[in-house]
Every structure is written in structure tokens, then in C-alpha cells.
Design a protein that fits this description.
The protein is built from two helices and five strands, in the order ββββαβα.
């Protein structure tokens, strides 16, 4: 099972909020998820990022690959460190 950590859009039309989720790579953006790791609200000032760091690190250790956007959010939250080199 190839898993990916990515954003799932929730919220009303024109008022986006996102959940940070672990899903199979082949599933739809808002389809079935394996686990929810946190949420992201870009409409607040500054944007709100809430992540369960232990769960996120565990999924990264299991081989789940974050999307580009989630990678930058995890870096801002202090969960993800880029590999040196």
C-alpha cells in the first residue's frame, strides 16, 4: 500500500479549510483516508497549522511520502526536517 500524506479539503464554498491526512496514493483527494494527522486553516492570520507530531513522524518512518504542500506545512510545524545533503 503506497501511502501519501496530503491535504483533504473541508469547509464551505469559498471558505477552505484542510485536514492533513494519510491516504492511499490512488484514492481521490476527498476520498477514503487511513488516518487524520491534523488540520490547516489558511484563512486565519497567521494561518493555523495543527499537527499530531508523533503520528506524523510514525507515518514518515513507515514510508509515507508527504505532498509538496504538506512537506512545507510540516516544516513550519517543526515535524519534518529535510535530509542533509
Amino acid at each position: 500500500m503506497a501511502t501519501r500524506i496530503r491535504l483533504r479539503r473541508v469547509g464551505q464554498k469559498g471558505q477552505p479549510e484542510y485536514r492533513i491526512v494519510v491516504a492511499e496514493r490512488s484514492k481521490a483527494r476527498d476520498g477514503r483516508v487511513v488516518e487524520t494527522l491534523g488540520h490547516y486553516n489558511p484563512r486565519t492570520e497567521p494561518p493555523t497549522i495543527t499537527v499530531d507530531a508523533e503520528k506524523a513522524r510514525a507515518w514518515l518512518a513507515k514510508g509515507a511520502t508527504p505532498s509538496d504542500t504538506v512537506r512545507s506545512l510540516l516544516k513550519k510545524a517543526g515535524v519534518f526536517q529535510a535530509p542533509a545533503g
